[in-house]
Amino acid sequence: MRILIFSCYFIFSIACNAQKKLTKSCDISVRVEKSDLDGCDLLLVLPDGRKLLPVNHEEMRLEDGQNVLISYIEEKDMASICMAEDAIVIVTCWQLEGRIPAKKECEDIRDPFESSWLSRIMGEIDPVIIEKYNYRDGFVYICKTSSYNYLYDCQGTLLCVYQAEEQPPCRSKTQELSDKREIWVKHR
């Protein structure tokens, strides 16, 4: 099993460095479909019925039946044991369809360790920086790791994930973000 995991990691690392066709707009609508087949933890079903097997699905924390907007890189040189997919992909950004921070009472977090949800998130994704933005009558939080940025509403609902070097597609939809403040920086 360790050899399989190491092999997948090695292939994934090589694939990330290869020159690929990239869709950057995070506007491809898919439905999440959980599967009991070996190697098919979840599939992303396009409107035309084609099924995508994301190699980085652990980072997304998706649930069966969700509608999600994504962008992805298709991996033509990879193989899987799933055999139910039409393509193997690396998802480069995703967001729940139709989800933006709601106008509701928010938790104003100044210290991430005093918030139960943000403290839990810090343990899960190990951010390097956490930024807080004003949004309407509340706040949104961006947890930045070395590879990905995670946008959360003020109650801890994950709104979208995008690669750190990409322009944030989900944040561009919420033009009302203002007053950026770093509330936590990891000391090395």
Model regions low in confidence, pLDDT < 50 over at least 5 residues: 1-23
Helical stretch tally: 3
Strand order of the largest sheet: 1-2-3-5-4
CATH superfamily of the largest domain: NigD-like N-terminal OB domain
Shape: elongated
The CATH topology of the largest domain turns out to be OB fold (Dihydrolipoamide Acetyltransferase, E2P)
In this structure, how is the largest beta sheet organized?
Answer: 5 strands, mixed, barrel
* Count of the separate structural domains: 2
Question: How would you describe the overall organization of this protein?
Answer:
The chain has 188 residues and is of the alpha+beta class. 16% of the residues lie in helices and 36% in strands. It folds into two domains: 95 residues, NigD-like N-terminal OB domain (OB fold (Dihydrolipoamide Acetyltransferase, E2P), Beta Barrel), CATH 2.40.50.500; 74 residues, no CATH class. It has three helices and ten strands. The protein has a five-stranded mixed β-barrel. It is elongated, with a radius of gyration of 17 Å. The N terminus is likely disordered.
Could you give a short description of this structure?
The protein is of the alpha+beta class and 188 residues long. It has helices at 2-17, 116-125, 169-172, and strands at residues 28-34, 42-45, 51-54, 67-74, 87-96, 129-135, 138-144, 148-153, 158-163, 178-185.
Task: Name some characteristics of this structure.
single chain; alpha+beta; OB fold (Dihydrolipoamide Acetyltransferase, E2P); 3 helices; 16% helix
SSE layout and pairings?
Blueprint: H1 2-17, E1 28-34, E2 42-45, E3 51-54, E4 67-74, E5 87-96, H2 116-125, E6 129-135, E7 138-144, E8 148-153, E9 158-163, H3 169-172, E10 178-185
Parallel strand pairs: 3-5
Antiparallel strand pairs: 1-2, 1-4, 2-3, 4-5, 5-9, 6-7, 6-10, 7-8, 8-9
